[in-house]
């Protein structure tokens, strides 16, 4: 760390990961890839972990970022505690019994975070208050993108096709369950049940009847009291990444890719996404050229509908009749070097290390505050 600080001309990047949610481990896996790929001759890097209890700590050398022997990684909270005071942009180290000491100003934060209290506009709001530039979408786009119910409303208002769905709020499930169940029955069977504000396929179930539906809703409610129930759509899962341009010429879309689930997974669940050899990405997707161009244009429209910045991944269903339906948009998609969005950019001609660099440059180029 001391050697890195001897070069004051380098941009100082804080890579933040972890967090208080069920996607804690996914965040660490992405952060590990970013920390490995980032150009240390160009950037001074400060790795910061957010423990499960919300404490910010300076990452230690023995921090593990990968799944090892089936065990998910967690933030090592033995490092120095940190604070980010409002309107200063400087990191403060807080050691028990010592006077707080400054670690210096951060030029840009790369929040490799997923789920509530990270991807949902909360950390973005904190960084806005501190006047620190950061990678990715702002407060509004992050919040809307995290809440699948509002996301679908915004996408539908922008003229993009989305599948039928029902939102279950906590009060309705507790006090008016029979009405909610009748609404869901109108979607037809099967249905997918998922937490409204979670990702990485956490808490998602496929329900084939009312009995399995109620169990699926309770499973989703373990992650979020607000639940989304979606009609099952028959189609191939095609995904497309979107990236803001450096020259402010508008967002651009990657070549699309098809997600192929291996083994006995009924859908693209957590294990299929993050455990070895459980999925494959066929990119570019083997769909007609006209469908490819339409899908890429729709991905950009979704990005702009939410007023996204930096990057996103838009997921589609491509039906047997050739119809494209938007499933969802992720404002901070899985970001290991083997995750879908980075793989799609690699196929399109932008390698992972260059993608990381471009995201940092995009963050540095945009003004802090309202824009």
Automatic annotation (TrEMBL):
<dbReference type="InterPro" id="IPR000291">
    <property type="entry name" value="D-Ala_lig_Van_CS"/>
</dbReference>
<dbReference type="GO" id="GO:0008360">
    <property type="term" value="P:regulation of cell shape"/>
</dbReference>
<comment type="function">
    <text>Cell wall formation.</text>
</comment>
<dbReference type="InterPro" id="IPR005905">
    <property type="entry name" value="D_ala_D_ala"/>
</dbReference>
<comment type="pathway">
    <text>Glycan biosynthesis.</text>
</comment>
<keyword id="KW-0067">ATP-binding</keyword>
<feature type="binding site">
    <location>
        <position position="315"/>
    </location>
    <ligand>
        <name>Mg(2+) 1</name>
    </ligand>
</feature>
<feature type="binding site">
    <location>
        <begin position="230"/>
        <end position="237"/>
    </location>
    <ligand>
        <name>ATP</name>
    </ligand>
</feature>
<feature type="domain" description="ATP-grasp">
    <location>
        <begin position="152"/>
        <end position="361"/>
    </location>
</feature>
<protein>
    <recommendedName>
        <fullName>D-alanine--D-alanine ligase</fullName>
        <ecNumber>6.3.2.4</ecNumber>
    </recommendedName>
</protein>
<keyword id="KW-0961">Cell wall biogenesis/degradation</keyword>
<feature type="binding site">
    <location>
        <position position="330"/>
    </location>
    <ligand>
        <name>Mg(2+) 2</name>
    </ligand>
</feature>
<keyword id="KW-0479">Metal-binding</keyword>
<dbReference type="InterPro" id="IPR013815">
    <property type="entry name" value="ATP_grasp_subdomain_1"/>
</dbReference>
<keyword id="KW-0464">Manganese</keyword>
<dbReference type="GO" id="GO:0046872">
    <property type="term" value="F:metal ion binding"/>
</dbReference>
<comment type="pathway">
    <text>Cell wall biogenesis; peptidoglycan biosynthesis.</text>
</comment>
<feature type="binding site">
    <location>
        <position position="328"/>
    </location>
    <ligand>
        <name>Mg(2+) 1</name>
    </ligand>
</feature>
<feature type="active site">
    <location>
        <position position="339"/>
    </location>
</feature>
<keyword id="KW-0573">Peptidoglycan synthesis</keyword>
<keyword id="KW-0547">Nucleotide-binding</keyword>
<keyword id="KW-0133">Cell shape</keyword>
<feature type="active site">
    <location>
        <position position="200"/>
    </location>
</feature>
<dbReference type="Pfam" id="PF01820">
    <property type="entry name" value="Dala_Dala_lig_N"/>
</dbReference>
<dbReference type="InterPro" id="IPR011095">
    <property type="entry name" value="Dala_Dala_lig_C"/>
</dbReference>
<dbReference type="InterPro" id="IPR011127">
    <property type="entry name" value="Dala_Dala_lig_N"/>
</dbReference>
<feature type="active site">
    <location>
        <position position="23"/>
    </location>
</feature>
<dbReference type="GO" id="GO:0005829">
    <property type="term" value="C:cytosol"/>
</dbReference>
<feature type="binding site">
    <location>
        <begin position="200"/>
        <end position="201"/>
    </location>
    <ligand>
        <name>ATP</name>
    </ligand>
</feature>
<feature type="binding site">
    <location>
        <position position="148"/>
    </location>
    <ligand>
        <name>ATP</name>
    </ligand>
</feature>
<dbReference type="Pfam" id="PF07478">
    <property type="entry name" value="Dala_Dala_lig_C"/>
</dbReference>
<feature type="binding site">
    <location>
        <begin position="192"/>
        <end position="194"/>
    </location>
    <ligand>
        <name>ATP</name>
    </ligand>
</feature>
<dbReference type="InterPro" id="IPR016185">
    <property type="entry name" value="PreATP-grasp_dom_sf"/>
</dbReference>
<keyword id="KW-0436">Ligase</keyword>
<dbReference type="GO" id="GO:0071555">
    <property type="term" value="P:cell wall organization"/>
</dbReference>
<feature type="binding site">
    <location>
        <position position="328"/>
    </location>
    <ligand>
        <name>Mg(2+) 2</name>
    </ligand>
</feature>
<comment type="similarity">
    <text>Belongs to the D-alanine--D-alanine ligase family.</text>
</comment>
<feature type="binding site">
    <location>
        <begin position="327"/>
        <end position="328"/>
    </location>
    <ligand>
        <name>ATP</name>
    </ligand>
</feature>
<dbReference type="GO" id="GO:0008716">
    <property type="term" value="F:D-alanine-D-alanine ligase activity"/>
</dbReference>
<keyword id="KW-0460">Magnesium</keyword>
<dbReference type="GO" id="GO:0005524">
    <property type="term" value="F:ATP binding"/>
</dbReference>
<dbReference type="GO" id="GO:0009252">
    <property type="term" value="P:peptidoglycan biosynthetic process"/>
</dbReference>
């Amino acid at each position: 760390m001391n050697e890195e600080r001897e070069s004051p001309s380098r941009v100082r990047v804080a890579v933040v990961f972890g967090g208080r949610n069920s996607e804690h481990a996914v965040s660490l896996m992405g952060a590990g890839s970013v920390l490995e790929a980032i150009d240390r001759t160009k950037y001074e890097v400060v790795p910061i972990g957010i423990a499960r209890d919300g404490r910010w700590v300076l990452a230690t050398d023995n921090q593990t970022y990968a799944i090892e022997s089936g065990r998910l990684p967690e933030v090592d909270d033995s490092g120095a505690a940190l604070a980010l005071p409002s309107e200063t942009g400087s990191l403060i180290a807080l050691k028990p019994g010592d006077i707080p000491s400054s670690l210096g100003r951060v030029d840009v934060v790369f929040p490799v975070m997923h789920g509530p209290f990270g991807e949902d506009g909360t950390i973005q709001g904190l960084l806005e208050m501190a006047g620190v530039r950061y990678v990715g979408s702002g407060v509004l786009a992050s919040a809307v993108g995290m809440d699948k119910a509002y996301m679908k409303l915004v996408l539908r208002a922008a003229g993009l096709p989305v599948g039928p769905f029902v939102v279950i709020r906590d009060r309705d499930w507790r006090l008016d369950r029979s009405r909610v169940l009748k609404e869901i029955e109108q979607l037809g069977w099967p249905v997918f049940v998922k937490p409204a504000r979670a990702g990485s396929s956490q808490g998602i179930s496929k329900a084939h009847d009312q009995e399995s539906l109620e169990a699926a809703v309770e499973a989703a409610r373990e992650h979020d009291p607000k639940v989304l129930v979606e009609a099952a759509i028959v189609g191939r899962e095609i995904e497309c990444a979107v990236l803001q341009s450096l020259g402010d010429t508008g967002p651009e879309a990657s070549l699309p890719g098809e997600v192929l689930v291996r083994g006995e997974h009924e859908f693209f669940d957590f294990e299929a996404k993050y455990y070895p050899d459980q999925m494959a990405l066929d990119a570019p997707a083997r769909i007609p050229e006209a469908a490819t161009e339409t899908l890429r244009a729709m991905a950009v429209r979704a990005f702009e509908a939410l007023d996204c910045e930096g990057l996103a991944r838009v997921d589609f269903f491509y039906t047997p009749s050739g119809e494209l339906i938007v499933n969802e948009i992720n404002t901070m998609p899985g970001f290991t070097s083997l995750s879908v969005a980075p793989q799609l950019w690699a196929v399109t001609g932008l390698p992972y290390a260059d993608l990381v660099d471009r995201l940092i440059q995009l963050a540095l180029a945009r003004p802090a505050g309202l824009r």
